[in-house]
Amino acid sequence: MYPFLKASTPAIFAILTFLASLAQAEPQSPDAQLHSDAKISTPQNALFCWSAPDHPLLTHGYGQFANSMADLFNRIDNLRGQAINGFPTDEQWASADLVVFFLTQNNLTESQFQQIDQHLKRGKSILALHQGLVQRGSYTEWANRIGFAFCWDKGATRSKWGKFENHKVTLDTTSQIFSDFPQSITFTDELYWNLQKGSRGKITILGETNAPKVPEEEADRKWPVIWTVQHPSIGKSKGGRTFGAVLGHFDTMRNSPTYQAIILRGVAWCLNEPFEPFEALIDLPPHLE
């Protein structure tokens, strides 16, 4: 259902990667600054962090996702979207209400974690998707901020990944985010499981599934796919929020109205906004250009 191309030689892959990076890093065009009738209650800024391509074509389209989502967000009054390459600067953190991590970033530094902590302490939010859950050297600290992170330990505690076909994801329809969703939905995508759970904030699992191609004794075990983290309030500031989702490996996932709704509802929850202003963005181009 989701075809992808993989270069047969390192040289071809390098050329394709370079061309893909040019396509992904296109700046937002003035024509994209079109507003729908939608409007959120207070002015808010969202940053979409991306990195250079490092996976086969039509997967992990970090820059394409960041630019297309930023363009869509600029259609809503009072909401500004911006695609940025890499980790935000001090100035970008200071003005951001939501920072979306869908990129490859390894070994965040202590000062970068401090920037994230200050962001959450101000009552701001983070959204982490698929590869954005992965940290090589600091996954425990990353899990503490985003709820669950890919674990690189050796042995049984190491996280795993694998493709699943038309796989059922069970949703918590008692939650505000999925209150009008069906009890389950199906996707073909890549799953991470056996993730490391963080120890900060209140983690609520909103979607879970079984792992593909596992031993029979593990077949019935459920793993988190979608979740939220409500971090504690500090003084007069409301606690920061995190929305996490394993989904998003294949670029064509963005053509799914269901996937779009999941991400946009996560955004609305993070920003403490109703979902209605974001409904106008579902199925609007550009998703894949």
The order of strands across the largest sheet is: 2-1-3-4-11-10-9-6-7
User: Treating each run of at least 4 consecutive H or I residues as one helix, how many helices?
Assistant: 7
DSSP strand tally = 11
What is the gyration radius calculated from CA atoms?
18 Å
Can you tell me the residue ranges where pLDDT is under 50 for at least 5 consecutive residues? 1-36
Task: Summarize the helix and strand pattern as letters.
Answer: HEHEHEHEHEEEEEEEHH
CATH class call:
Alpha Beta
Mean pLDDT: 85
Largest sheet: 9 strands, mixed
**Assembly of the depicted chains:** single chain
Determine the CATH superfamily.
Class I glutamine amidotransferase (GATase) domain
Briefly note the CATH topology name. Answer: Rossmann fold
Helix content: 10-25%
- What is the count of structural domains? 1
| Backbone shape | globular
